[in-house]
Write a structure and sequence with these properties.
Radius of gyration: 21 Å
Number of helices: 4
Shape: elongated
Number of strands: 5
Strand content: 15-25%
Strand order of the largest sheet: 4-3-2-1-5
Structural class: alpha+beta
């Protein structure tokens, strides 16, 4: 019986870029430097302000980015060089995932008046679209 290809595309591996889901560094990205056991990995984020620490898998999300040539147990300096060489942080910031997170955070930080201004802008846009469609169909 031939082996079926895996449905999984992202694996826990040394060099995998992860997004932290909880803790004081929530929302930042880091790199897996070493796999400790089946529950934790040693992560490091020298360019994003995440200190080198053991972190549980259940509090991180695997991203599609990988530092492929990173050796096991690499130090902070080596990880920093690989991140800067590959431009991984810039790739992350340009990804739709990061931009969506940023938009949600910005929307959550709006005060009452700013939400009101957004509502008025949406109404104005909706009215403009309605008028243009009415003109086009008539």
């Amino acid at each position: 019986m031939p082996a079926q290809p895996s449905n999984f595309k992202r694996f826990v591996e040394v060099g995998r870029v992860v997004l932290l889901k909880s803790g004081p560094h929530e929302g930042r990205i880091a790199v897996i430097a070493e796999i400790i056991d089946h529950n934790r990995a040693l992560i490091d984020g020298p360019t994003t302000g995440v200190p080198r620490q053991a972190f549980p898998y259940r509090h991180m999300t695997l991203t599609p980015f990988v530092l492929s040539s990173l050796p096991r147990g690499a130090g902070t300096g080596v990880i920093r060089k690989h991140l800067e060489k590959d431009g991984t942080v810039e790739k992350w910031n340009k990804s739709s995932w990061a931009q969506k997170r940023e938009a949600i955070a910005k929307r959550r930080s709006l005060n009452d008046f700013e939400r009101f201004c957004v509502m008025l802008a949406k109404k104005a846009r909706r009215d403009q679209v309605r008028k243009t469609l009415a003109k086009a169909s008539a």
